[in-house]
Amino acid sequence: MLPDLLAFVDLTHRFEQTKRVVFAAGEDRLENDAEHSYQLALVAWYLAEKHVLPLDPAKLLRYALVHDLVEAYAGDTYFYRDAAADADKKAKEQAAADRIAAEFPDFLSLHKTIENYEHQVDAEAQFLYSLDKLLPVINGYRDGGRSWKKLGVTFAMASTEKTKKITDPIVAQYLKELLAMLETKQELFAPRLLL
Fold first, then answer.
1. Terminal alpha carbon distance of the chain
2. What is the pLDDT of residue 28?
3. Is the pLDDT of residue 40 over 90?
4. Given its phi and psi angles, is residue 133 left (phi above 0), alpha (psi -120 to 50 degrees) or beta?
């Protein structure tokens, strides 16, 4: 019994050690996946209650906890990527999901939750997916654009790519308001390249 628990705790530590490409707010280190997932869970819960959304809070929290868990083995992949990097991401994440399933075969609800999130099977998964795309924009704004400047993200990139990915109407409205504000704060972004 104990070895299985120790192995699962090790997975959670590995998840904590998975660095994202963005700075932790107000710190000179990169954010990790556990911090990101915790923030996503709390913000999802908050918005669902604030807007009285017909979403299952327990399901939302489970999705938030596992939405990036495969990155413990696959690593984080930069949001602004080309088609080849996207295909590589999908392959690495499927291999990681298979590895987690093999290491913890008795945790069936975990595997089903990862799979359901990946396939966006319900309103909770779709809401959380959209929110997962919005939070980095909020955090980039709140942190003075440090990650955007470091990674070469322009306002046009953030606006275009995030708008394409965010499909939930509530989250889309937040993005619309945020982008309207950010349009007046171009200094937060990397300079646009002139061709």
1. 61
2. 94
3. yes
4. alpha
Name the CATH topology of 2-188: Hypothetical protein af1432 (1.10.3210)
pTM metric for this prediction = 0.93
Say if residues 45 and 37 touch (Cβ distance below 8 Å).
no
CB 142 within 8 A of CB 114: no
pLDDT-derived band at 77 (thresholds 50, 70, 90) equals: confident
Q: How long a stretch of residues is the chain?
A: 195
Domain-by-domain residue ranges, the chain?
2-188
Q: Which residue in this structure is represented by tokens 């069936």?
A: 108
CB 85 within 8 A of CB 77: yes
Give the C-alpha separation, 60 to 63, whole Å. 5
The string of pLDDT tens digits covering residues 113-167 is 999 999 999 999 999 999 999 999 999 999 999 999 999 999 999 899 899 999 9
Q: Is 27 left (phi over 0), alpha (psi -120 to 50) or beta?
A: beta
pLDDT at 86: 67
Task: Please report the pLDDT score of residue 75 as a whole number.
Answer: 87
Contacts of 17 (CB under 8 A, 6+ apart): 32
Closest by CA to 114, choosing from 76, 70, 175, 171, is 70
Among 114, 113, 111, 91, residue whose Cα is nearest residue 101: 111
